[in-house]
Amino acid sequence: MRFSPAGDPGTPDARSATRYLVWLAGRRPLFFGSAIALGVIWMVAQALMPAAVGRAVDAGLAHRDPDALLRWGLVLLGLGVVQAAAGILRHRCAVHNWLGAAYRTVQVTVDATNRLGAALPRRVAAGEVVSIGTADIEHIGSAVDITARGTGAVVAIATVAVILLTASVPLGLVVVLGVPLLMVLVALLIRPLHRQQAAYRESTGELTARAADIVSGLRVLRGVGGEPMLGARYREQSQALRADGLRVARVESLIQAAQILLPGVFVVLVTWLGARFALRGEISAGQLVSFYGYTAFLVSPLRNLTEAADKLTRGHVAARRVVRLLRLAPEFTEPARPVPVPEGPGELVDVRSGLVLRPGRLTALAATAPEDAAEIADRLGRYVDGDVTLHGVPLRDVALATVRERILVADNDAQLFSGALRTELDPRDRGDHHAIEAALVAASATDIVEALPGGLDSPVAERGREFSGGQRQRLRLARALVADPETLVLVEPTSAVDAHTEARIADRLAAARHGRTTLVCTTSPLVLGRAEHVVFVEDGKVVAEGRHDELLAAEPRYRATVSREEDQ
Fold it and tell me: Is the full-model pTM beyond 0.70?
């Protein structure tokens, strides 16, 4: 089941966030309902214990009745056993609900990012997704968890109010009227906390995104001397986040103080009134003991209520962030009735640019503007919508899974993930050692593996941090060759390697992809000279085709584009 926050795009995030929390709670109705029931039993058992103590004092001690004292002592023991058993089971259910809500949020977030696909970086900052997976899941889990204790606290307060009204109407009215007044005072603090937490959450996401950008581009920043400037901006934004955090902490400190002060004042008031009624003979000694026990007990449910208000507020803020991500729709959707594509290699045509990829041939695409080549690659892989056909069938009418299976676009934004290098190069776990070795040879990456202590079984750090930019590029190329798709689109696969390595890759690529359709987007003469067919693109349109030497002789614009590479 996939959560759908609202069918109407104009639905406020606040309503959607509430529905999201309710949806999470309903995912495990047995555990959620059991936690609430056990929370009520746990709290009510505690609420009845002062009454049992008071009856033991009046019936057993005041009247010197050993049997009554024993009877009410056993009642008190039974309530203690019920309280202990219900508390243990409630805690287990609450932890299950916390984990279920938190990690279900991780699942729906990952599902949403997968649905967005290549559009994710353009729609959501990396720091936003990271913050959801770290801070927000804790708040959402706590919001679902606190419902059990919060509900138990409400029922326990109502139970105590009924008992007090039965024994003394004035004391009962103090509880009935005093508890809502306390909650109103807490609510006055919750509203500014809600605003401050939302602002703090925004600042946290922005700062996390900036940190990720700095780390990912640290080598480039150092190369161009931009590290001090970016570092200064990060420090400035970090101090702004610190100020937001202090504002949140200021309100939170007031709430924490209110959790101690207000229930304490309430206890003092009820105890003072009960003592006066006892001196006037309106209540018995046992009832006075009970009233003091009730007031001492009420500190716990009142603090639970204020804690529930705090955690529900935090969870609501976090849920709004999650819902905002879930409401993002992919740039294009699956066709209602996917059209089958004939088996085997076929012509892949980009109508907008006029590019025609003939099956089984190594084609190179040289563009005057690198972004034009990247846009064509994205359209060919259907990462953006476009008029592209395979075997004459429009890709927008083909199931996306089929497109991904038959057309692979490998660019320099692809990441290396943590894990064994063998698994990284063979993510489909085909277990073909010879295919991996052949791909490493074609990508001129065997030296990388040989330098590792464990070879292909060596662990790879996140994003392949232990490798240089050129090494990561060669490993990404090897991974694409291991996948061996029907059509492979490579975007600048040799831009970060030296000329000798590039020449080796250019010599071996055609053999590695023999019989398969391959498009290499590049302006490198070493690669262009070894391609079977070269396509020249200017202003997003194909303006010339032929072999590299033919285009050099006949097309001045092509010669000018390529000569920039040759002059470097």
Answer: no
